[in-house]
Write a structure and sequence with these properties.
9 strands; single chain; 216 residues; 21% strand; alpha/beta; seven-stranded mixed β-sheet; Rossmann fold
Length: 216
């Protein structure tokens, strides 16, 4: 896996008033969603620290560690990170498969006039899968991809054109999500991975684009 760890400084500029308002309203609606019993099918999760996510994205942009301006959040939920990226000037996409969360995150963005795109899409592109192993989840690459005849796609969004991915996986999914990033990203892309311990790490994709199986 040709990923390079990037150094992050999380002591940068504080979030703007607009970003604080986005975070506060998203958290308020999220809490209401669960307190009112509206998310019975969807396990309540401990959200990432949005101020830390903001600091990480801000640092990557401020220090020119991003090759471009396209952001994608895997499993966007209420799209807090997606909105932060948008308000920091990125073209921001969120991937979500739960209809209730798709509707609510889109409504939140419309109400606060934050330009994001929420796609009804799994983080695993067509043909990819995951398996449960002793050490946690493992990524299964599609045979067609390995043969070079399929190109990963997220409902029209080409993951190869994403400059910054963000994900907050369950602990047993961390390695799998890094493998997924390695499989679908292209040279110069960055993965921002938030960990359950409240830490955030950044990884740079260093493989040559010629190494992508679907380009053969």
């Amino acid at each position: 896996m040709p990923l390079q760890t990037l150094n992050l400084s999380l002591l940068g500029e504080s979030p703007s008033a607009e970003i604080v308002a986005w975070i506060d309203e998203a958290n308020r609606r999220r809490e209401y969603f669960y307190e009112e019993g509206l998310g019975l099918r969807i396990p309540k999760y401990v959200p990432s620290n949005p101020e830390m996510v903001h600091a990480a994205i801000y640092d990557l942009k401020e220090n020119a560690q991003l090759r471009g301006n396209t952001f994608c959040e895997w499993g966007s939920g209420f799209a807090i990170a997606t909105g932060i990226a948008s308000l920091l000037g990125m073209k921001a996409y969120g991937l979500e498969i739960e209809p209730e969360l798709i509707d609510r995150s889109r409504q939140l963005a419309a109400d606060l006039n934050v330009p994001i795109t929420i796609l009804d899409s799994d983080y695993l592109p067509e043909g990819f899968d995951e398996s449960e192993e002793m050490g946690g989840k493992e990524l299964i690459l599609p045979e067609a991809t390995m043969a070079g005849s399929i190109h990963p796609d997220y409902d029209g969004l080409d993951p190869g054109e994403v400059d910054l991915f963000f994900v907050y996986p369950y602990p047993d999914q961390e390695e799998m999500m890094m493998d997924l990033f390695d499989a679908v990203s292209t040279h110069g892309a960055v993965l921002l991975l938030y960990r359950e311990e409240g830490e955030v790490d950044a990884f740079l994709q260093t493989k040559d684009n010629d190494d992508d199986a679907w380009d053969s």
